[in-house]
Amino acid sequence: MQYIPAPIEFLFHPIQRLRRFFSNPSASPVISHAELAVNPQWNSLLFKLPPELRNYIYQLALTAYEDQDRPYQPNAYYYRPGFTCALRIDTNLLLTCRRISFETTKIPASINEQIFWYYREPPRISNGHLSTHDRLSSVLRHQNLKTIHIFTQQLWLEGRGFANFTTLWKYAYPTTLIVTVRHSDWWWWEEEAPLTLDPKQEGQASVANHSRPSDPFHSKSWGNQFRNVRSLQKLQMELETVEKKKRELDEIVERAEGWEFPLDRGFLRLNKSKTRRTGWTGAMLDTVNERERELDAYLRDEGIDNRLEDPPASEARKRLEATGVVFDEAGSVKGLPAHKTCTYYM
pTM of the full predicted structure? Predict the structure, then answer.
């Protein structure tokens, strides 16, 4: 989404203060006692580098990465590109000496996304809808934080959850919001309900009556809640579904060309040149009911009634095995081929 326009707020970075201090301490009137106690370490090769190069090194060292020692199960809701393992930020660098601590302490927040999961989150992550109100309120007021990323079910986005979220953002600093709706986040995805998304309608969007570009935003619609977000300059939406429903997602993206989200100052609209479609292959989701529903749906698509024919007849089995279906020793279906997803980034 393209921001149009609002004044940019420039934030004062501690590295600017340190640069002035170490080059000419007498010319820097606003310095704390702790900063005055810093050992400049002029003989260190690191501190002989220009501040820009040091900052680049710090950013490389403090960027979040996937911890290969904590992998996620491929059939988990939260498993996807960029989230195949738990994310980790190594902050030991901040503990090496006082000068590095002063130069780096705010970098992790400025270069990494703050991620909130609203339902179906990874292990050791607090449920977004239950326990992050205080954390979110604190995080949004962090002056160096640039990007918030929320993984949300459509239920939370179109309900009171997102409205409360934007209310907390009213006097906050982040400038970028990423909203991800996964394959399993759409309304009634288990029953293969039609995909629909409309920022102007209140609550669950109507499949039959899509809003037009000239229609106003309902005061309680999720699209109207961006009025509360004063610092927002960029909105990125990631919409995902399975390959067989990509045509429905195509239609949503086409309608999104007419979306203009009102802000407190200015508005957001789709930057079509930056919209792209991609996809990835994932495993079947790991819950008993959803596994059975997906199995039944898959076999119906193949013309087989698994309830009447278990195990499937030999000819049907050969055809299924050729598509990637796995059978156990008893001849029963125990695994489906990996599903392919269609993902839009806009």
Answer: 0.73
CB 195 within 8 A of CB 241: yes
67: region left, alpha or beta (phi > 0 left; psi from -120 to 50 alpha): beta
Enter the tokens of residue 262.
């009102």
The residues facing 2 across adjacent strands are 269
- The CA distances from residue 184 to 41, 188, 202, 210, in Å, are 53, 9, 21, 22
Other beta carbons within 10 Å of 195? 22
- Mean pLDDT, contiguous 10-residue spans, the chain (346 residues): 36 44 43 62 90 93 94 85 92 88 88 88 62 62 82 91 84 85 88 88 85 88 88 89 87 88 84 83 56 55 50 58 60 55 70
Residues 265/231, Cβ–Cβ less than 8 Å: no
Other C-beta atoms closer than 10 Å to the C-beta of 169 total: 23
Cα dihedral 70→151→179→210 (10° resolution) = 140
Asked if residue 156 lies in contact with residue 225, where contact means CB atoms within 8 angstroms, the answer is no
Structure tokens at 200: 């102007």
